[in-house]
Amino acid sequence: MPRWIAELSGYHGPSYLAVADAIENAIRDGVLKTGSRLPPQRLLADFLGLHVNTVNRAMRVTALRGLTVGTTRRGTIVLG
């Protein structure tokens, strides 16, 4: 099981923004630290009951916000 999974029960609106906001909140709250790896997008989608494209879109939003960076082979890394 992954170390961190987004909790989306309190969010309203588009799922991809809910995931992106959950990641941002986890970083702000110190749950996800700089250099942490997020679960693979496919695994995260399975646990959240979302399509992998929705999670992929959320990761693009977090990258645009300057919160994460996606790397080949290492996955999505938290920038802080």
TrEMBL record:
<dbReference type="InterPro" id="IPR036390">
    <property type="entry name" value="WH_DNA-bd_sf"/>
</dbReference>
<dbReference type="InterPro" id="IPR051446">
    <property type="entry name" value="HTH_trans_reg/aminotransferase"/>
</dbReference>
<keyword id="KW-0238">DNA-binding</keyword>
<keyword id="KW-0663">Pyridoxal phosphate</keyword>
<feature type="domain" description="HTH gntR-type">
    <location>
        <begin position="13"/>
        <end position="80"/>
    </location>
</feature>
<dbReference type="InterPro" id="IPR036388">
    <property type="entry name" value="WH-like_DNA-bd_sf"/>
</dbReference>
<keyword id="KW-0804">Transcription</keyword>
<dbReference type="InterPro" id="IPR000524">
    <property type="entry name" value="Tscrpt_reg_HTH_GntR"/>
</dbReference>
<dbReference type="GO" id="GO:0003700">
    <property type="term" value="F:DNA-binding transcription factor activity"/>
</dbReference>
<keyword id="KW-0805">Transcription regulation</keyword>
<protein>
    <submittedName>
        <fullName>DNA-binding GntR family transcriptional regulator</fullName>
    </submittedName>
</protein>
<dbReference type="Pfam" id="PF00392">
    <property type="entry name" value="GntR"/>
</dbReference>
<dbReference type="GO" id="GO:0003677">
    <property type="term" value="F:DNA binding"/>
</dbReference>
